[in-house]
Every structure is written in structure tokens, then in C-alpha cells.
Amino acid sequence: MKIAVIGATGYTGAELLRILSMHPRVEVSVLTSDSSAGKSIAQLYPHVRDIYKHTLQQADPAEIAKQADLAFVALPGGLSSGIVPGLIEAGLKVIDLGGDFRLPAPLYETWYKKQAPPVELQQQAVYGLSEWYAEEIAQANLITNPGCYPTATLLGLLPLVKNGLIELDSIVVDAKSGVSGAGKALSLNTHYPEINENLKAYKLGVHQHIPEIETQLARVAGEDVTISFTTHLVPMVRGILTTSYARLKDRWTTRDLLDLYQQVYEGATFVRIRPEGEFPATKEVATSNYCDIGLYVDERTRRVTVISVIDNLVKGASGQAVQNLNLMNGWDEATGLGFVPVYP
Ligand SMILES: NC(=O)C1=CN([C@@H]2O[C@H](COP(=O)(O)OP(=O)(O)OC[C@H]3O[C@@H](n4cnc5c(N)ncnc54)[C@H](OP(=O)(O)O)[C@@H]3O)[C@@H](O)[C@H]2O)C=CC1
Ligand SMILES: CC(=O)N[C@@H](CCC(=O)OP(=O)(O)O)C(=O)O
């Protein structure tokens, strides 16, 4: 299958190049860039010299359709809406890594403060949380790949919500990300002297992933859900750790819930449930497509704490996008993704 990467010069684009070079069933035929069209990809990214010999092209849907069957779109928020309709119309399948298609139009416009994409296309888009929506993903032409924080948060909370075990108005999520989550563009907030040896909360009450997580929890719960969600920037390059708290309706033990999580994720290659008393760290999944989950029930307060970790660029973006490519094609979900985390 021939693949185009739109926005190949960004961080998720670079991660797609790394992963797709190890995928046995695809050939990357088109790489695009707006600001560097005409240059070779190796001029931008010397680490792929001799692995990719492509010249970067401008993203023209009709031209891309002549050279590829499926496009990954890895553009900054708000730009996918401009190109995805043309790609779909030209007959390509699309996996969009940005947030443009993840929310219904009114919610999107409220939280992103941008114009929503065409409603029909948004409604066609299938939410690509691979472990939960594999059947729908297999039938889709357009996948809206989940955000990085929502991936970690939802994989950690959905088993509780699906089984009706928690008070839905009690959910609090404390989330931390490495700086590559902000993409390649330069900004004061992610400047080295600002971020190194520092830890800070950001986007309180306005983070664009709040409505995404709430919409997906509500979908499984069958009723509205609101959450408290705080994100923090951590001085590391890769990794997300989410700590989610909720009040249990009944007196469950840690062991009971771990058994339940094992059942829910039985057969899911990329979700690993930690044994009782063990909690995952970001380094234990770095550069891999794993989401590792540990949990603890505080029987005094009847609260459950769920810890999830992912690599934001892999399971939080490009790795899950390739997992979805596999599901769309009926291939094993782990094809091309069987690499071990890099440690230490
Ligand atoms: N970083 C992460 O951990 C995650 C990111 N995402 C989402 O994935 C998408 C890509 O993120 P990321 O790779 O981090 O972003 P980057 O900022 O690193 O890269 C963005 C890419 O878009 C291109 N681009 C920038 N401006 C324009 C423009 N005006 N027109 C066309 N192309 C443009 C850039 O290329 P050039 O300048 O060469 O044209 C670059 O290739 C975003 O929507 C992001 O929210 C989702 C999950 C996790
Ligand atoms: C560290 C950092 O800044 N992370 C980004 C998450 C990027 C991402 O996944 O967001 P999209 O929904 O836009 O695709 C943020 O918090 O906005």
C-alpha cells in the first residue's frame, strides 16, 4: 500500500517516518511540507538520510491521489480541515492526527476557537481509539486519531465507566507531558531556559482535550460526563503520565479491578496491566506503542487512582495512527509496531 505523509517535517511526521520504515506492508511514496517543499527530507532530518530519499512536495490532493492510497495528515490544529475534504474526494483514505474532526462542530468551535470542518465529513470520521473501536475503524475512510492526553486518560478510565463502577461526577485527571507534545514550532513556553528544571501547569479549564475526553466518556456511559482536568509540562522530551481519580460506587478492591482490567484488555497487544502494587513510569514505554496501566483502590476513601503512561508521539499519535492503518486493512494490529521500549 502506498502512503503519503502530509506534514512530514513535524514531530509526529518524523515519528511516522521512523515507524513506517519498519512496516512490511507499506511503501512511503509522498512526503509533503509547506515551508520546505523542494528540499530533500534528509536536509531537514539527517537521521533519515539514505533511508528516505524523497523530495518534499507541496500538498496537492489531486497529485497525491496519483501516487498514494492513504494519507496520514500531521498538520497543526485547524489546517486539516483545509486539505482532508480534497483528499477524501480524490479517493484517498485518511488518518488525521490533529483535532479538527474529533468533536461535533459546536463543541469544536467553542473549544478550539476555529471554524469547524464540513459537518458531513466530521460525522463520517471514526474516532481512532484502536482498542475500543476496532470494528468501526476497519470500515472507515476517515479516521480522527485521538489526542495524546485523551489516549492515556480514556484507556485508563473506560473500563470503569463501561462497567458503571464510578460516580461520573467525581472524575479528576492530573496529566503530565513531555515537551515534544507541543510540536516542533518554537515558543517561549517550550524554550529550554523556561522548561528545564521546571514544572508547570497550563491551559487550566480551557484545554482542548477536556471536551474530547468528556465526549468519549459520555459515549460509553450513555449520559453526560464532566471532568476536572489539569495538564502539566515536564522537562523531558517524550512521555505522558495521567493520574485519574474517581469515587467508586461500591467497595471494590485493587485486586478486583485489576482482574476486570485484565479481562477488558485481554488480546489487546498494546495495553499492559501492571500487577498489584506496581505502577508504570514513562520510560517503561518510551518510543513504543504500549500504554501501561496500574491502579490502586484506597479502601478508606473509596477512591480509585488509575495511572496510565504512553509515549505521546507513538501511542499518543503516530503509533496509534499506524495501528489504525493496520485495522483499516485487516492486518494484525501490531504489524510494524512490534518494537521494544528503549530503556534506559
Ligand atoms: N506532538 C504530539 O505529541 C502530538 C501531536 N498531535 C497532533 O498532530 C498534529 C501534528 O503535530 P506535530 O507533529 O507535533 O506538529 P509540528 O508543529 O511538529 O509539525 C507540524 C507540521 O505541519 C507543517 N505546517 C506548519 N504550518 C503549516 C501550514 N501553514 N501549512 C501547511 N503545513 C504546515 C509543518 O511543516 P512545514 O513547516 O515544513 O510546512 C510540519 O511538518 C497536530 O495537529 C497535533 O495537535 C496529536 C497527538 C500528539
Ligand atoms: C505538551 C503540549 O503542549 N501538548 C499539547 C497536546 C497536543 C495534542 O495532542 O493535541 P491536539 O489535540 O491538538 O492534537 C497541548 O497540551 O495542547
Concise synopsis of the structure shown:
The chain is 32% helix and 19% strand.
Oligomer: single chain
What structural class should be given to the helix and strand makeup? alpha/beta
Give the biggest sheet: 7 strands, mixed
The arrangement of helices and strands along the chain is EHEHHEHEHHEHEHEHEHEEHEEEH
CATH class of the largest domain: Alpha Beta
CATH topology of the largest domain: Dihydrodipicolinate Reductase, domain 2
Globally, the shape reads globular
- Give the percentage of residues in beta strands: 15-25%
Which second-level CATH architecture of the largest domain applies? 2-Layer Sandwich
Fourth-level CATH superfamily of the largest domain: Dihydrodipicolinate Reductase, domain 2
Tell me the span between the first and last alpha carbons. 35 Å
The distinct bound ligands, ions and cofactors come out as:
NADPH dihydro-nicotinamide-adenine-dinucleotide phosphate, N-acetyl-L-glutamyl 5-phosphate
**Helicity level:** 25-40%
Q: Figure out the total of helices.
A: 12
Taking strands numbered 1, 2, ... along the chain, how are they ordered across the largest sheet? Answer: 8-9-7-10-13-12-11
Low-confidence segments, given as residue ranges, are none
